[in-house]
Amino acid sequence: MTSITVEPCTIALFGALGDLALRKLFPALYQLDRAGLLHAETRILALARETGEPSSHLSAIDEHLRRHVPAREIDEVAMQRFMARVDYLTMDFLQAEDYAALADKLGRVERLIAYFATPASVYGAICAGLAQTGLTDVTRVVLEKPIGHDLASSRKVNDAVALHFPENRIYRIDHYLGKETVQNLIALRFANSLFETQWNQHHISHVEITVAEQVGIEGRWGYFDEAGQLRDMIQNHLLQLLCLIAMDPPSDLSADSIRDEKVKVLKALAPITVEQLGQQVVRGQYIAGSILGKTVPGYLEEDNANAQSDTETFVALRAEIRNWRWSGVPFYLRTGKRMPQKLSQIVIHFKEPPHYIFAPEQRPIISNRLIIRLQPDEGISLQVMTKDQGLDKGMQLRSRPLQLSFSDTYRSSRIPDAYERLVLEVMKGNQNLFVRKDEIEYAWRWCDQLIAGWQRQGDSPKPYAAGSWGPVASIALITRDGRSWYGDL
Ligand code: BG6
């Protein structure tokens, strides 16, 4: 059991029968309960528009839990204790009258967490409804991404929420911020003076951020096709990772200190003009191919697909940050669906030593790299140059890793899912891992100019075979600078 003390609260889960809630949120809450991190009096109210007997919806939640929690982590006592906390109420979130029933059901609560696992278009209506219940002063609201599809629409959503809730009670989720290794980035950078002195354009040549997924669209074609990979992944997850790598040390660990530094990075991102787009950004769309020896359909052949769609499922780009620390250091970002493997990693490439004294043919291998592996096999590895062992080897060099694998180092503990940490932080009232309004807006501003550029150019995504690392142009994007994507097979 744990030493963290959490206060009791009521969690109102809007959209409780949706995919996110069933796949991620209930399992995360169950795991918190199992770990002793839910107060005995904490209650969960599942809210959804589905009518019918509450007991049948509760059984469905139970069933999904058992499907999404690994069998070895199902503890019957914890499971029963958890399900006893959950209640169900049918609600139409757009109907003002339904909030009276919600208020009745909630009764007197000291602390309410309203979790919106719904499309952002209804956030405003839910907030207005919550205001009717008279509970806004004791409520923290949790907003799932995507918040809008561009700067203007995200402002609309944020403004509608802000009519009823102050910023310090709004928790905008970017689930990447809850991942164990992403958290470790802060420790790695700011608890080790070793790195901080090297963390700039004098010592780093370039940075790569790859978030590759093996899965395709997984039954979400309609949603995804409206968004595309730039809005779905770059605007949030990859830009957040870039901020954590590039930001200056905050003066303390408070949410605003961290977020102030992240915003400075977003503001310093160099715009990419229409003329630069062709050289700096590559959009791709997967066509049929093979993954793990299995043939898979192309994006346009997925279920419910519109065969004319020109939505991108892959983006690679070269970003620059205009400030003293990063001037001249490209950040190569790449993310796509149907890649050869699921892999999220950040690679920091350090510059060559200033004066080279080894055999000329060994020169290309000389470079220190710091590899931060977010998933799978979470860990950090620092590649250092060593001398090959043996009398016959002379001064033959080899690149070897100094390795920290989290699963080997912390053998006894499972790595919690991002949502477990995020929900816990909301319960604790800590906004560190959540995105402030201005961060979202600066990220949109930067992405909007790319989308506008594509539209002006009439750009169509370049095809790439499912199971490959993306269009050839994404390789050219980095080889033009005399580099290559790290570790591509
Ligand atoms: C979500 C995107 O935010 O992140 C999905 O909407 C994507 O399209 C998912 O699949 C990836 O998350 P993870 O944690 O599996 O890397």
TrEMBL record:
Gene Ontology biological-process entries: glucose metabolic process; pentose-phosphate shunt, oxidative branch
Record domain Glucose-6-phosphate dehydrogenase NAD-binding: where = 13-184
Q: What's the superkingdom here? A: Bacteria
Q: Which organism is it from?
A: Pseudomonas cavernicola
Q: Which gene encodes it?
A: zwf
**Entry EC no(s):** 1.1.1.49
| Annotated PANTHER family | GLUCOSE-6-PHOSPHATE 1-DEHYDROGENASE (PTHR23429:SF0), GLUCOSE-6-PHOSPHATE 1-DEHYDROGENASE G6PD (PTHR23429)
The residues responsible for catalysis, as annotated, are 237 (proton acceptor)
Q: Which reaction does it catalyse?
A: D-glucose 6-phosphate + NADP(+) = 6-phospho-D-glucono-1,5-lactone + NADPH + H(+)
Judged by the first EC level, this protein's enzyme class is: oxidoreductase
Q: Which Pfam families match?
A: G6PD_C (PF02781), G6PD_N (PF00479)
Q: Which GO terms describe its cellular component?
A: cytosol
| Record function comment | Catalyzes the oxidation of glucose 6-phosphate to 6-phosphogluconolactone.
Q: Which residues bind NADP(+)?
A: 49, 92-93, 145
Any idea what this protein is called? Answer: Glucose-6-phosphate 1-dehydrogenase
- List the lineage, top down: Bacteria, Pseudomonadati, Pseudomonadota, Gammaproteobacteria, Pseudomonadales
